[in-house]
Amino acid sequence: MRNVGIIMRRELASYFATPLAYVFILIFLMLANAFTFYLGGFYERGQADLAPFFNFHPWLYLFLIPAISMKLWAEERKSGSIELLLTQPVTLWEAVLGKFFAAWLFTALALALTFPLWITVNYLGSPDNGAILAAYVGSLLVAGGLLSVGSCMSALTRNQVVAFILGVVTCFALLLAGYPIVLDAFRSWLPQAFVDAIASLAFLTHFESIAKGVIDLRDLLYFAMLIGFFLLATSIVLDVRKSD
Amino acid sequence: MIKTEHLTKRYRSLTAVDDVSFQVGPGEVLGFLGPNGAGKTTTMRMLAGFVPPTSGRASICGHDIETDPLGAKASLGYLPEGAPGYGEMTVRRFLEFIADLRRLEGARRKARLDHVIQHLQLASVLEQSIETLSKGFRRRVGLAQAIVHDPPVLILDEPTDGLDPNQKHEVRTLINDMARDKIIVISTHILEEVDAVCTRAIIIARGRIVADDTPLQLAGKSRYHNAVSLQLEQPELLAATRAAVAALPAVAEVEVSERDARLTALPRSGATILPAVSELAARQGLKLKELHLESGRLDEVFRTITN
After folding, report:
1. What is the pLDDT of residues B197-216, one digit of tens each?
2. Residue B119: which residues within 8 A CB-CB, separation 6 or more?
3. Does the beta carbon of A188 lie under 8 angstroms from any beta carbon of chain B?
4. How far apart are CA A131 and CA A208, in angstroms?
5. B102 with A91: Cβ contact below 8 A
6. Do the Cβ atoms of B77 and B48 come closer than 8 Å?
7. What is the distance between the alpha carbons of residues B297 and B278, in angstroms, rounded to a whole number?
8. For chain A, how many structural domains are there in total?
9. What are the pLDDT digits (tens) for A177-226?
10. Are B93 and A13 inside 8 Å of each other by CB?
11. What is the pTM of this model?
12. I want to staple B194 with a disulfide (CB 3.0 to 4.6 A). Which of A229, B31, B70, B250 is the partner?
């Protein structure tokens, strides 16, 4: 596990060695605030909570998360540094985890930087801070889930643009798995049991229940399994394709 | 000790490495030669644990590359082809990252880092990011990361590719310095390198080993082994001299280079022709710029067995 930490620190430092980190954080904060105040009607609602803020997170992540995850493996494969990394005495799994946690920690940092909104809402009224904390946890879990998907898409290709597009499309499908736009595509040719299974994969339903302030063990388990599954898929894909 | 047994790698229809078996012991510097696409890089990648073999086995210092990959990797320093690195990292941060992964700690970590920085002359670029470095410096950073943990086995894929003659010389000196107590495998298609650093050469073509010998013995297989080369001061005598040399009983063939008025007499197999040729030159009163005995041309052997 020590290697996970070493790889994570290197990866995290590399975000800040380029403009990527600063651009991402800036855009994330700008969009998050714009959505909250203009689309969410933060003031007009007259309620001291952060619902208009958290409701837009999945949509914000839909484009911003693949922008982070696209480089995770595609860049390593393109530059050949993957050969250097995987011939050090580390396991593939340690490398997959290290890079994933670096990306997740980075989004956690961006998320934490939205704290002025939390201060604002506490200044304006007396919100349920427990519910806000739960919503933050939920938002972070959605980000982690989407990052694990993006990590897998990034492992599939040497091209970062392709990784980005695959990431957005797959994340979109998973976000909306419970809605007709996705389910109709499967309903005609899959048995109902499978369609129900796909529907239960939906991010949004799990996120919405956490965002309301209820942290249910089932929702936590859902995100843990989802992340585990896609990271495992990442390592399998890499094992097969790393030297292509 | 590096040991491979029937090592084979197949990609769909292509057999990149085909039944390769060899052993390398301490003190040996093995040159891995072959045309591009012959399977050198694939063999090295299998030894380094980056691609798994389709069949066969290999071990590094007793650690099987498939059943004990971490043990094998820990005994190994590896320079991948093209010396890739993390472009945005500074040289110092990069070497520290590798030192951490290699479990170097405390005083030893500092000593080893200082050692590689000094020996590969990286002090002037330590704070520069790797992507801004010249090809030569990048290669040296790659070498530095391969030796930072002082491994008993070094596998270097084209360590001098892209370096200028001075840098090549430095890298070869470095390899020679380390050769005494290590096992070193280098791949190259530069034949002078084999003479300069290798104690043994394996030539590989279409995935198979086609020769495995010392550079001297390999050169001995050349048609030019024991050939005599002479350069005339008077180019107009070239044709006459050629006829006279060709008439000598032990001479099989004479090659002529008009550009520098040079004749090369190739002996019949096993024959010695130097005394006869020099006697002929004395008898005819030829003025020679140069007369020498060739030990054999490695490039010619290389072409003959890989084509």
Report:
1. 899 999 998 899 998 988 88
2. B144, B174
3. no
4. 12
5. no
6. no
7. 21
8. 1
9. 877 777 787 888 888 888 887 777 778 888 888 888 788 888 899 999 99
10. yes
11. 0.88
12. B31
